Amino acid sequence: MGFPVPRTKVAEVRSELIELFGDLVMQVGVGHMSFHTCKQFGSRYPGDPTRLAVQDFLPDEQLRHVENLTEFAGMLVYGKWIFILNGRQAVFFFEAGIRAIGP
Predict the structure, then answer these.
(1) What's the pLDDT tens digit per position in 54-103?
(2) Where are the domains of the chain?
(3) Would you call 3 helix, strand, or coil by DSSP?
């Protein structure tokens, strides 16, 4: 569909990881769900984590300044169409004066 998306991979969540991070949970609506051993979808961080701050929420007044707002809107519609329910399907980042967004 031509949306700007990071490289993705399927990662296996093993019991050792779950035991090491006991607070490893996924937000579902107003509640939380614990992880269990299984395969999970993962995507690449959109830059150097030591120099790039990433947020999963923008206030409404900042959203209108997103550089690729049309693509973002298309991705939201697609996500609803294929019934993606989690609230963390997008990340926002700011880089050297460039406003950008990615899934």
Answers:
(1) 888 888 888 888 888 888 888 888 878 887 766 556 788 876 655 555 55
(2) 8-102
(3) coil
Question: What pTM did the predictor assign?
Answer: 0.54
Distance, CA of 59 to CA of 88 (rounded, Å): 15
How do residues 68-77 score in pLDDT, each as one tens digit? 888 888 888 8
Q: What is the DSSP string of 33-57?
A: EE--SEEEEEE--SS-TTT--EES-
CA distances from 72 to 65, 85, 97 (A): 12, 16, 19
E strand map for the chain: 8-13, 25-28, 31-34, 38-43, 54-55, 91-95, 98-102
